[in-house]
Structures are given as structure tokens and as C-alpha cells.
Amino acid sequence: MPDVCGDAVRAIMEVTALCSRCFLASFFSGLELNELMPTFTEPSSGAPPPIVPGSPRGGDNNGNNGPNPSSSATTVRIAVYIGMCASTMTFAALVCAMFVRRGLAINNDWHRLPVPPLLWWNTVALVLSSVAIDLGRRAFRAGRRSEFRRLWLTGAALGTWFLIGQAINWKFLAEHGFYLQHNPASAFFFILTWAHAAHVIGALAALYFVAVRMLYFPAIPLNRNVLEVSAIFWHFLDVMWLLLMAIFQFWS
User: Fold this and answer.
1) What is the pTM of this model?
2) Which domains does the chain have, with CATH numbers?
3) pLDDT at 218 over 70
4) In whole angstroms, what is the distance from residue 70 CA to residue 3 CA?
5) 168: Cα separation from own chain's centroid
6) What gap in Å lies between CA 212 and CA 149, rounded to an integer?
């Protein structure tokens, strides 16, 4: 069992790194390189090509210069969707492995794992966090910046509480004799919750990035694609956790 757990942990780390790269790619794809680089026009006869700076947002009135906002938004969403697909496959593989291992239990080595009481409060905090983030996103669209900052920070704070609560749950199980090597049930619980927590850490970094930009750098326009990607990925982690909780409750 330790070898299986070690292989699973290494696989999680590799896939998590892939998801992080996809998620970061969605952020940097929102920064239009054409806004920072000059545009080279066709040279005239024998003369060096003139350098014409690109328009800051959306080009001229005819839309001939500068980046296409709709194309940028599509690229950002595709990048985050790829990361979500990779994460979904990771969790699906781990859950399938758990079901197979449960069916192959020999000598009654699969001992039911009690669900820590704080796990339910963590779930409530994560759901409320997702609601606050979505309300904040809607407030940003409507131009209510002060309301957006309050809701966004509330969502990020609830997400931070979720992580702290997860650490308390791991300590609770360890104090009651449930370790990674204790039995297959506890091993899969730790692996699944660790994998989800790793994704939450990356998503929280994005949430706090948006919050810091709005609080300390209000004069710098915030790319709306960054905010949208952060909210979408956070909702995805919320749904993923609800599915994991249903599985934990079923096996408890």
C-alpha cells in the first residue's frame, strides 16, 4: 500500500503542475502582448518600415488595430477549461482506484473512516465562498467596485478558512489513529483531500491577486478575463469538493 500511495502522490504532483501551468497560461494570455509591442506596417519603397504603436484597448474605431477582446477572452477560457479537464481526470482516476481497492479488500483491511465533524463546516464555508465570489463578479460587471471588493475579500477569506479547517481535520484524524499507512480508506482520504487542497492553494493565489490589484493598485485597469477565470476555477473546485464529500459520506 505505501508504494501505491507514493505512486499516486507523484502522479498528483505531476498533474497538479500541469494544471498550474494551464491556469497560469490563462492569466498571461489575458495580458495582451500586442498592447506592449509596437506594430510594424508594410514598408514603402526603399524606406525602413515605420513603427506605429498599437492602440491600448481594442484598436481604432474601425477595429483594425490592436487585439481582439473576444478572441482574448476565448483563449483564456479555453486555457482554464483545459486545466479543469486535467484536474477532473486526476480526481476521477483516484476515485476509480478507491472503488477498485474497496472491492478488492482482503482480510477486512478496509476500515471505515469517520467523517470529521469540522468537514461539514468546511463545506459550508466553501459553498458560501463560491456564492460571495460570484456576487462579487456580478458587482464588478455592474461597476460597483466597493461592493465587489467586500464580496471578493469575503470569498477569499472563507476559502482560507477552508484550508485551515482541512489542516485541523488532518490533525483530528491523526490524533485518532488514522494515518496514511493505517488502512486504504484513510490513505485515499488523505490523498484526495491533499490533491484538492493543492488546487485550492493555487486558486486562492489567483483570488488574492485580484484583491490586491483592486485594493492597492486601483489606478491600473484590471483585466476582466483574470477575474472571470478566477471565479470559474473556484466554482469548479466547489463542485469537485461537494462530489468528494458525497463519496466520503457514502463510504463512512
Assistant:
1) 0.69
2) 2-32+67-251 (1.20.120.80)
3) no
4) 48
5) 22
6) 10
